[in-house]
Design brief:
Layout (H helix, E strand, L loop, with lengths): L1 E9 L8 E8 L2 E6 L9 E4 L4 E4 L1 E3 L15 H4 L3 E6 L11 H11 L4 H8 L8 H10 L5 E4 L1 E2 H16 L5 H17 L3 E5 L26 H14 L2 E5 L5 H11 L8 E5 L10 H16 L2 E6 L5 E5 L10 H7 L3 H9 L1 H11 L15 E4 L10 H8 L3 H12 L4 E5 L5 H9 L3 E3 L16 H11 L6 H8 L1 H7 L14 E4 L4 H4 L5 E3 L9 E3 L6 E6 L2 E5 L3 E2 L17
Helix pairs in contact: 2-3, 5-6, 6-7, 8-9, 11-14, 13-14, 16-17
């Protein structure tokens, strides 16, 4: 079937300004870009007058590795114009390992319900190797195109066994050889690269292997020498290192910069989570971008920080939130049951410990401001929409004592929210535009009860309208499409003759009013009674095409067979 998208303001994914043009799609490819396309018999015509016609967007940081097995249409990304997603971030993936280990890796790191994740993954792993996993993905009826990193935690477990992957930082020669072989196999199969994790807040759930419950995931147990050795394999293949540094240890950023350095060798493309404007340290974003620029200028490094396009709004269920993983007092409590948590918060010794953690003076991702923590949901409706500090003041109690008493009373039935970072609009837009960043860090598919950033690309476009002097629209589109695709080594992100037709039609008049700023609850049947936070974009996205086929329209919603018919492709590295 031939489709003609007429009269739109056309952006090809480069930094060229938009121009009025007609786009012709045939057999999944772009076959014509005309000032005025000729009439084509039996073609489907779409009038895009007043609209933007852009390449489909890339989401460079997702954790769809589990969800894609049961909901391969990945509707919550496609509806926002995303046509390519990148999985396997933060050292964890489904590509390698036993089903029980994969559940334990994902469940707490990504705060996904254990029952749901078990039903999605347990006894479903049919692949025995990294190459077989890609063969498996080739058969999935995926909605968007999919690319992936291989997780270092998976490689470590497979090479060293579970016990040694947690207990030993220095692998022996046999284990090193196994790691090298796994990574070489992944590179030969076309993985984008490898992801590592240095952030102690990412912990093993212990659903199946309880001995390591609450321990930082295996990637964090590795020595810097191990990271470097594996990074050199990536360098050989000209692939990418995805790194999650330790937010509380600035030396981790230096180590990552050293791996990216191209002095007397090829630079290693390195994408780092993340360039955030933290409330607790308003200069930290300058430090990370400066680090990248210094590395580029003096060390021939190629390091890009991922930038989130909206305020870092997080939700907590009583004591359960990834933001509390930085508190030593909360590590054990987060993995406990309801009664154990109640007893802990009733214990004066624990309360003193929690207060000490809360009042620490070091840089923190979590701002720890009770005046900014608002109750979203509670059995007592009189609490809703008030901050913890307001309610504490009304009751005449100390704020932190009041918060702990609420947790004792309601546990996870108390839902609260706060913005931890990216609260300053102009700073956020400057980060999205900065040469040291790539827009991303949406974490789509993860932390489903804590946040929802699936519409990250649209939020970037909205801000390009508000701050055109900082982020012109053509630059914003380039940074959401061709720039990350080319940098990662993916065949995606541009609309040129002969290229795959991944297309999004945007109504710019809806960008300022059509995007929801706060998420809504979605009780999808596959969640077995649980919910996830999702976003909606009203009439902003008019049409989405993947491989030349329309999969979503504002008028008709999703095509009926999204998730059962294959529209997207597995994208292997082009490097």
């Amino acid at each position: 079937m031939t489709t003609v998208i007429r009269n739109g303001l056309f952006f090809d994914g480069t930094e060229k300004k938009g121009r009025k043009a007609d786009l012709v799609i045939q057999q999944g490819k772009v076959v014509g870009i005309h000032a005025t396309a000729p009439a084509i018999e039996n073609a489907k015509e779409i009038d895009a007058s007043g609209k933007w016609v852009t390449p489909g967007f890339l989401d460079i940081h997702t954790h769809y590795d589990a969800e894609i097995e049961v909901l391969p249409g990945l509707e919550e990304s496609v509806r926002h114009g995303t046509t390519t997603v990148v999985m396997g971030n933060c050292s964890i993936s489904a590509a390698l390992g036993k089903d029980e280990d994969i559940v334990d890796l994902f469940c707490r790191v990504e705060n996904m319900p254990a029952q749901v994740l078990t039903e999605w993954i347990k006894d479903k792993i049919t692949w025995k190797s990294l190459a077989e996993y890609y063969d498996h993905l080739e058969q999935i009826p995926m909605g968007p195109n999919v690319a992936s990193f291989v997780g270092h935690s998976n490689i470590r477990i497979a090479s060293m066994g579970l016990d040694r992957s947690f207990k030993v930082s220095k692998a022996n020669d046999s284990e090193k050889k196994k790691m090298n072989n796994f990574l070489n196999e992944a590179m030969e199969a076309g993985y984008l690269g490898m992801s590592i994790d240095m952030l102690p807040f990412h912990r093993w759930s212990g659903i199946y292997s309880e001995a390591y419950k609450g321990s930082s995931v295996p990637s964090q147990q590795a020595s810097v020498k191990e990271y470097r050795r594996l990074a050199n394999i990536l360098r050989k293949y000209d692939r990418v290192l995805q790194a999650t540094p330790n937010a509380l240890d600035k030396m981790s950023g230096i180590h990552i910069l050293g791996m990216s350095s191209g002095l007397f060798r090829k630079p290693l493309k390195t994408t780092v989570v993340a360039a955030l404007d933290l409330k607790t340290d308003k200069n930290i974003h300058k430090l990370v971008t400066t680090l990248s620029l210094i590395g580029k200028r003096f060390l021939n490094a190629d390091m890009r920080f991922q930038a989130l396009s909206m305020p870092f709004l997080n939700y907590g269920e009583g004591p359960i939130t990834p933001l509390f993983e930085e508190f030593p007092s909360m590590v054990k409590v987060i993995g406990a049951n309801r009664e154990e948590r109640k007893l802990a918060f009733q214990d004066p010794t624990f309360r003193k410990w929690f207060r000490k953690d809360w009042n620490h003076k070091a840089t923190s991702v979590f701002p720890r401001l009770l005046k900014e923590i608002t109750i979203e949901k509670a059995p007592n409706n009189n609490l809703v929409s008030h901050t913890i500090q307001e309610l504490a003041d009304q009751s005449g109690k100390d704020g932190l004592d009041y918060f702990m008493d609420l947790i004792i009373q309601y546990d996870t039935d108390l839902v609260w929210k706060c913005t931890a970072a990216n609260h300053r609009d102009k700073v956020r837009v400057k980060l999205l535009s900065h040469e040291a960043t790539i827009p991303g860090f949406n974490d789509s598919g993860a932390h489903n009860v804590n946040m929802a950033f699936h519409d990250g690309a649209l939020q970037t476009l909205k801000q390009s309208l508000e701050y055109p002097d900082i982020l012109p629209i053509e630059k914003a589109i380039h940074r959401l499409t061709k720039l990350p695709a080319d940098w990662l080594g993916l065949d995606a992100g541009s609309l040129e003759l002969g290229r795959r037709a991944d297309v999004c039609v945007i109504d710019p008049s809806q960008l300022k009013t059509g995007l929801t700023q706060e998420p809504i609850e979605d009780f999808h049947p596959s969640l077995k009674g649980a919910f996830r936070y999702v976003k909606r974009s009203g009439g902003v996205v008019n049409h989405v095409f993947i491989n030349g086929s329309e999969v979503f329209s504002a008028a008709n919603g999703f095509v009926a067979d999204l998730g059962t018919k294959k529209y997207g492709q597995l994208l292997r590295s082009q490097n």
